[in-house]
Design brief:
Helix content: 25-40%
Structural class: alpha+beta
CATH topology: Histidine-containing Protein, Chain: A
CATH superfamily: HPr-like
Order of helices and strands: EHEEHEH
Largest sheet: 4 strands, antiparallel
Shape: globular
Strand order of the largest sheet: 1-4-2-3
Oligomer: single chain
Number of strands: 4
CATH class: Alpha Beta
Strand content: 25-35%
Radius of gyration: 11 Å
Low-confidence stretches: none
């Protein structure tokens, strides 16, 4: 398992549009991918799960991956999330 802390920079947080892009990217990987925020976690392959976390601008989330392609998943998804500006 590998993980990384990421600050959300998007002015609207991790709302529906960026969350949808995140889910689309996450489903390409075989490994388990989780997002943790304020003591709660969600499967990054679940749009409803991500939205239920209520992640706002300035939030620090922890992205964790576990499985055969965990390193590639962590790299690509963290780059995607860090690139959400606005």
């Amino acid at each position: 398992m590998v993980s990384k802390e990421i600050e959300i920079k998007n002015s609207q947080g991790l709302h529906a549009r960026p969350a949808t892009l995140l889910v689309q990217k996450a489903t390409r990987f075989k490994c388990e991918i989780k997002i943790e925020y304020k003591g709660k976690s969600a499967n990054a392959k679940s749009l409803i799960g991500i939205l239920s976390l209520g992640i706002s601008k300035g939030a620090n989330i922890v992205l964790s991956t576990k499985g055969s392609d965990e390193n590639a998943a962590l790299k690509e998804i963290s780059e995607l999330v860090e690139g959400f500006e606005g």
